[in-house]
Amino acid sequence: MSILPRVISIAKAPGAVGPYSQALLVNSTIYISGQLVLGGMAEETKQALVNMGEILKATTVLWADINGFKTVNETHKQHFKSSFPARATYRVAVLPKEAVWRLKPVAVQGPLTTASL
């Protein structure tokens, strides 16, 4: 199988703050650059989820201040009514632009089916 990368760039989300792409589609997997939004825990969470929209399927959350974990979870519950994304959460020393958290998603393109194991 050939690997066919394609750069994704949209106007409805902020551009990258460095020399990297907003997202990269490789075959059917979408790698989305970390979403960095300023404005407080609830507002940052809401806007980061809006920026990613429907392509968010799996995320990693990097925290400079882990104390907002409950706030982020509540905002996720408001944005996702079912089929919650997979997520890993861990604390880091510092994030760009003095943000308190950063979302790092990966998504799969195409229809999804819920499987029972």
TrEMBL record:
<dbReference type="Pfam" id="PF01042">
    <property type="entry name" value="Ribonuc_L-PSP"/>
</dbReference>
<dbReference type="InterPro" id="IPR035959">
    <property type="entry name" value="RutC-like_sf"/>
</dbReference>
<dbReference type="GO" id="GO:0019239">
    <property type="term" value="F:deaminase activity"/>
</dbReference>
<dbReference type="GO" id="GO:0005829">
    <property type="term" value="C:cytosol"/>
</dbReference>
<protein>
    <submittedName>
        <fullName>Uncharacterized protein</fullName>
    </submittedName>
</protein>
<dbReference type="InterPro" id="IPR006175">
    <property type="entry name" value="YjgF/YER057c/UK114"/>
</dbReference>
<dbReference type="GO" id="GO:0005739">
    <property type="term" value="C:mitochondrion"/>
</dbReference>
